[in-house]
Amino acid sequence: MQRIRVHDKTFVPFLTADQIKERVAEMAMQISHDYRDKKPLLLAVLNGSFMFAADLFRLLTIDAEISFIKIASYQGMRSSGKVVTAIGMEHDLNGRAVILVEDIVDTGKTLHHFIPTLQQQHPASIAVATFLHKPEATLYPLSLQYVGFQIPNRFVVGYGLDYDGLGRNYYQVYQLAPDSLNES
Ligand code: 5GP
């Protein structure tokens, strides 16, 4: 793998396609084991998770459903906090074993605010399967049941993750080059 340019920045190889394939297969095996007879509903959070979600889903060996949602947040009119809703949610979550599928958990803010919205629909359970997690950046309390890779707090692209729209199409994951931090 070689260094790549995305927009104005340089990225260096970080995770190979083989590492990703192997880890996603392990996660699928674990989920298939944990959710046998539960017919889980995977809720894949767009856009970043589409590639991970597709690979994970096709490796499940149990009955499972998948749906793709977008998370939108806006400032509520009266409440002090943000309102976080899902666009494209077609399923009734009542009594379902829900697995949220994310590309990356960074600060954890998105899921921390979104999970209570899901809980209002009384699912049987909610778990999180995230391809990447940056533990050093995570500021919000979250329990993450399935984590592909824990990574340092540096910007990454590839395997569905973008930098300003580009870079999603690589099978590998690339990390911002140390000497690219000062580029503009
Ligand atoms: P959080 O709410 O956990 O801070 O942010 C999660 C979202 O931030 C991810 O779904 C992703 O869109 C974006 N994000 C955080 N870190 C990275 C990164 O290193 N690379 C890319 N491409 N997106 C990131």
Provide a concise account of the structure shown.
The chain is an alpha/beta fold and 184 residues long. Helices cover 21% and strands 34% of the residues.
Helix vs. strand class = alpha/beta
Total beta strand runs? 10
Shape: globular
Separate helix tally: 3
CATH class call: Alpha Beta
**Can you give the helix content as a percent range?**
10-25%
Helix-strand sequence:
EEHEHEEEHEEEE
Which consecutive residue ranges, at least 5 long each, have pLDDT under 50? Answer: none
> Which cofactors or ions or other ligands sit in this model?
guanosine-5'-monophosphate
How is this structure best described in words?
The structure is a single chain. The chain is an alpha/beta fold. It has a single domain, classed as Rossmann fold. The chain contains three helices and ten strands, in the order ββαβαβββαββββ. The strands form two sheets. It has a six-stranded mixed β-sheet. β4 and β5 form a beta hairpin. α1 crosses α2 (50-58). The protein is globular and about 50 Å long. The model has no long low-confidence stretch (mean pLDDT 93). The site of guanosine-5'-monophosphate (5GP) has 16 residues, from β6, α3 and β9. Guanosine-5'-monophosphate is lined by residues 48, 102-110, 155-157, 161-163.
Key attributes of the depicted protein:
binds guanosine-5'-monophosphate, alpha/beta, globular, single chain, 3 helices, 10 strands, Rossmann fold, 21% helix, six-stranded mixed sheet, four-stranded antiparallel sheet, 184 residues
Write the layout of secondary structure elements.
Elements: E1 4-6, E2 9-15, H1 17-34, E3 41-46, H2 50-58, E4 65-75, E5 82-87, E6 97-105, H3 109-119, E7 125-133, E8 146-150, E9 156-157, E10 173-176
Parallel strand pairs: 3-4, 3-6, 6-7, 7-8
Antiparallel strand pairs: 1-2, 2-10, 4-5, 9-10
The structure holds guanosine-5'-monophosphate.
